[in-house]
Design a protein that fits this description.
Number of strands: 0
Helix content: over 70%
Number of domains: 2
CATH superfamily of the largest domain: Tetracycline Repressor, domain 2
Distance between the termini: 75 Å
CATH class of the largest domain: Mainly Alpha
Structural class: mainly alpha
Order of helices and strands: HHHHHHHHHH
Low-confidence stretches: 203-209
Mean pLDDT: 87
Strand content: under 5%
Radius of gyration: 20 Å
CATH architecture of the largest domain: Orthogonal Bundle
Largest sheet: none
Number of helices: 10
C-alpha cells in the first residue's frame, strides 16, 4: 500500500528548512526555491503547502511562538515552588532574550520579518504582530491577578506595564543579538525594572512620589 502522506509533518519540515536557511544566511536570503532545496522537496510541493513566501514566513513565526510558549511553561514547571507573578514575568523575559540557539532564531526571524514588512506590502498584511499582542494580553492577565494579590505596585496599570515589558524585552533582545549587551547585563536591567513593578517580599516597595 502507498504510504499515507502526513501533511502536518511536511509543513513542519518546510518550516524547519526555512529556519535553517535563516540561521545560515539571514531572512533576506530566503526564497521558496532555497527552502525546497533545503528540505529536499520540489518547488511545486512547497507551493502546494504555502502559496507565497509570506505564508511560509508567517507559519514559521507561529511555529516559533508555540515553541517559545512551551519553553516558557517548561521554565515555570521547573521552579521548586508555586510560581509567583514575578516568577511568571521573569521567566517570560528570560525566554525572550536570545541566549541560546532556540531563542536566538526566534528573535532573529521576528526582527528580520518586521524590517522586511516595512517595505513589502504582502508581508505587512500578514498577522505577524498578533504574537506580541497575545503576549501582552497574557502578561496583562498575570499582572491583573498580581494587583489583586498585592504583588503589583498598586498605582500601576497592568495593561500598560504588560506593553512596557514586551517592548523592553524586544529592545534588550535586539541589543543582545547584535552584541551591544551581554545576556547577564540585559537580565540585570530587567531585574532592576521588575523591582519597581513586582518587588520581592524581601525588597522595600518603591515609594510613590
Amino acid at each position: 500500500m502507498p504510504r499515507t502522506v502526513d501533511h502536518g509533518e511536511r509543513r513542519a519540515a518546510l518550516v524547519e528548512a526555512l529556519l535553517r536557511v535563516v540561521e545560515r544566511q539571514g531572512l533576506a536570503a530566503v526564497t521558496m526555491r532555497a527552502v525546497a532545496a533545503e528540505a529536499g522537496m520540489s518547488l511545486r510541493l512547497v507551493q502546494y503547502y504555502f502559496d507565497t513566501k509570506a505564508a511560509l514566513l508567517n507559519a514559521a513565526l507561529e511555529h516559533l511562538e508555540r515553541r517559545s510558549h512551551d519553553r516558557w511553561n517548561a521554565r515555570l514547571a521547573s521552579l521548586p515552588a508555586r510560581p509567583t507573578a514575578r516568577d511568571h514575568v521573569e521567566q517570560f523575559l528570560a525566554e525572550a532574550l536570545p541566549t541560546d540557539g532556540e531563542s536566538r532564531i526566534f528573535h532573529l526571524v521576528w526582527t528580520s520579518y518586521a524590517v522586511l514588512a516595512m517595505t513589502d506590502s504582502e508581508l505587512a498584511h500578514r498577522p505577524f504582530l498578533a504574537g506580541p499582542e497575545r503576549l501582552e494580553r497574557r502578561l496583562a492577565d498575570t499582572l491583573e491577578r498580581a494587583r489583586d494579590t498585592g504583588e503589583l505596585v498598586r498605582h500601576l496599570d497592568p495593561a500598560l506595564e504588560a506593553a512596557l515589558l514586551v517592548n523592553l524585552g524586544h529592545g534588550l533582545g535586539t541589543s543582545v543579538l547584535v552584541g551591544r549587551l551581554g545576556a547577564e547585563e540585559a537580565l540585570a536591567v530587567l531585574s532592576h525594572h521588575l523591582d519597581q513593578v513586582l518587588p520581592r517580599h524581601d525588597l522595600p516597595c518603591p515609594q510613590v512620589m
